[in-house]
Amino acid sequence: MEDSSSKHMPENLDDPPNSRLFVVTSRCVTEDDLRERFSKYGDIQGIWLLKDKQTKEPKGVSYVKYAKSSQACMAMEDMHGKVLLEGTKPIKVFIAQSRSSAKHRDVEDEELTRIFVMIPKTFTEEDLKNTFREYGDIEYCDLIRNKLTGESKGLGYVRYYKPSQAALAIENCDKSYRAILAEPRSKNNYSEDAGASRGGGEYGYVDSFSQHTFPASADQGGHMVVDYRHGDITRSLILNTRAALTQEQIFALFDLIPGMEYCELLRDSYCLTKGPLGYALIRYNNLGSSVYAKEKLNGFEYPPGNRLQVTFYDDGESPAGRMASQVVTAQIMSTVWNGASCGQAVKSPGYSLSRIQVDFSLPSLKKLAPSDSKTKERLFVVFNPSPLPLNVLEDVFCRFGSLIEVHLVPGRNVGYVKYADRQCAEEAKALLHGRIVNGVKMKVMLADPPREESHKRPRTY
């Protein structure tokens, strides 16, 4: 099967999400017919008619890509069931999900009408409704509250009657609300009579994890599901951060996800460093909450410029002992490689070890590039005898500016560093190649250049 499309194809067909329509029509419908009827709803970026590979005849299935999600939703709401050409059957119009998914969503789908927002804790449900009613008719508003105290957690849900209204709210509301489409709720546990705790459980998004199974397998609908009872997923998480976060800040952040039963900022019991380590242990009372916390907070910038690293850890392991052991190892290796007196201490407020030992001068810290920045250059790094921790590498490589992320290849002494600016990457390579950081020698080279125009799935590192 091949497609015939308009000449100007957007670089990312799923940006923004839910901006692409899946249209079922008669085979006689042309691209011009679709453009004439659908262009009144917004800026069309492309139209694709699927054709049979052998006969080149239209299959009666098309895609219409808009510049905005709200435009696609309005087109779906208005055009679904309409007749395009006299004598043809009514068309069917759905929101197409990402290209990797076979599922399409219609106007009745709750996933398109319910949004999740961050709000002041002083907001009442009436305040929430008054704030978001300008974008359309609201079916209900819910505040997420603490089970014990009943106080608002500063989070809430807004359910609209139409997908286009929810899309308009996400596009146009104040960015401080961080509005997004809410996670789908578990239908098995949902009841319209659930009151203020609508959505399967008090918070709506927790019960959805109970439907997944792992290892990956296909359910009857052909979708991949995950079973968290096996593998490396646990109820406990390790937080790694370069910024000097307090116990209270970490607690408040992870307490946004319900079910947290333990949170502790880890400290160096061997007294090799001053102050707290840049690590924290968080434990939830269910797997669903820990999975959700990792998914939402890993890579999250808090405070701005500091990207959090959140990973699962084995409940039976002693994280404090492990972190302290890493500090000891780094100190010993530094002595072996550099000698007791040749290390230069580089102070880095908030950095987990408080010291970076190097035999050269490093530039000052610079702000990270946004996580969605386009990669202009990648560096390939080889470590001897073993890789440095991610937070150490991020601390070192961010000093040249425009750093997007650092990735270590599991089980190997190599990694990749992404930069949003080629000049910054060149400066990092020139200064760091062959250097020793915390007792680890690094070889820094240019990696294969990223393919800026490719139809293959992008690399994950």
From TrEMBL:
Annotated ranges, domain RRM: 19-98, 113-187, 377-449
Pfam families the record matches: RRM_1 (PF00076)
A GO MF term: RNA binding
Entry protein name: RNA binding motif protein 45
Signal peptide: none
Keywords: RNA-binding
Naturally occurring in which organism (per UniProt): Cyprinodon variegatus
InterPro entries, per the entry: Nucleotide-bd_a/b_plait_sf, RBD_domain_sf, RBM45_RRM1, RBM45_RRM2, RBM45_RRM3, RBM45_RRM4, RRM_dom, SLIRP/GR-RBP-like
Superkingdom of origin organism: Eukaryota
